[in-house]
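Same chain as my last thread, 330 residues:
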Amino acid sequence: MIDEKTGAKILAGLLVISIITGIVLLALLPPAANKGKMEKTGEFINNSAYPADSIAVLNIFTPITYSDGNDYFGMSRGGAIYWVDLLKSAEDNPNIKAVILRIDSPGGTVAATQEVYNEVKRLRAKGKIVTVSMGDIAASGAYYISSAADYIVANPGSIVGSIGVITAGLDLSELFKKVGIGYNVIKSGKNKDMMSGYRKMTDEERDILTGLIMDAYSQFFQAVSSGRHISAGDLQPLADGRIFTGRQALKNKLIDEIGDFEDTVKITAKMAKINGNPNVVELRSEVNNLFKLLTSSGIMPFKNEKVALIKTPLDDLDASMSPVYYLYAY
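reply #2:
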């Protein structure tokens, strides 16, 4: 006869097994088809799934970081590596006539932004039409990417712009003095620990970082000036980090038209010379991230699929040992 304590343990074990089994089964199921106008077809490695005269939509709905967007359970889809891979899949696909970047992002790190920006330019060089549909916000790095497109559409209340670059760090030196915290630092050069929180920044360090920021800013500024065909003189008063509504952005030539996503589809189809209703598909990977984890670890065999490497916290161990500098196009 099973006593109460043993029975409780058995029930708890069965519950855990049930939860794990449910998560695995959900992870292995393909994403549900959208019954609306958006058709989710295929995954980005097999391009033959896309029908002729397709407009591919790439959703950029997160901050822009240098990431492949993986998590273990498929709950997050975002990151420069992931988006670039998806956009590359459209480059030589004859069935994809155009790409819409559907953006709702506050921006992100500069280099990650430039990865996506450069891929948009490559897409256009391959003859693809690239347009942007802006949601709540397409600011800073998100606007940087948008400036590479053929045409930008925003809602009248979208938040647009924020042309600028920033980096920041806390100065905790006075607090550390009060609580009696000190640091022993051994460094190869006097500027190795710039922006460390345990001491004040020197004038030389401030000059170095200001030069860094202004160089990155000039790259952003030039990208917008070139992409939007706005002279440096006209752009300068708009490029101080301020934001605009969609209506204000239109007045200042930062976007091309006021409209929503459906308007963007119609505009894109016309620009791509697609007759009739276009096939609207979503650029995405159909392989769930947990499935990638299982296959990459050898637990489950899966042929004919490129499996992304899973990044672990240990990959960031070296970076965590010294001050981290990020340039944000936020």
